[in-house]
TrEMBL record:
Residues 1-11 have a biased composition (Basic and acidic residues). Residues 15-31, 32-48 form the Nuclease associated modular domain. InterPro entries: NUMOD3. It comes from the Bacteria. Residues 1-21, 41-71 are annotated as: Disordered. This is Nuclease associated modular domain-containing protein. It comes from Metabacillus rhizolycopersici.
Length: 120
């Protein structure tokens, strides 16, 4: 326990602590307008994806777009979105959504395999 750094000791001491709503609001106000580096954004992406990043398949079989489909995206677009999000460092959900002219929710659902699920 003595080999821990100062930051690790503080982290352990505060583990499980609940923040008040006022404290959360103050933290949010303090973080407003701060820009993050690409390296920090990549760490956040890794944390949010968790273990699913390692289990994402490179070329999952997708249900192809039909003539009756209302989707703005094709199966190839979905493959490219997943590949770019997992492999490119500076790519974010927001940037992909702007590029493909769809909502951020749509890109998030694609990346998390909530929509365009692999064919079983």
């Amino acid at each position: 326990m003595n080999n821990l750094s100062k930051g690790e000791k503080i982290s352990r001491a505060l583990k499980g602590r609940k923040l008040s709503e006022e404290h959360k609001r103050k933290i949010a106000v303090a973080k407003l307008g701060k820009s993050r580096t690409i390296k920090t954004k990549a760490k956040i992406k890794q944390t949010r994806l968790g273990t699913s990043l390692g289990t994402m398949k490179e070329k999952p079989p997708l249900v192809p777009k039909t003539t009756m489909s209302r989707s703005d995206l094709t199966a190839d677009d979905v493959k490219e979105i997943r590949h770019r999000y997992t492999n490119e460092t500076g790519t974010s959900i927001r940037k992909l959504a702007e590029e493909y002219h769809v909502s951020r929710h749509t890109i998030h659902s694609i990346v998390k395999y909530k929509t365009w699920k692999p064919k079983i």
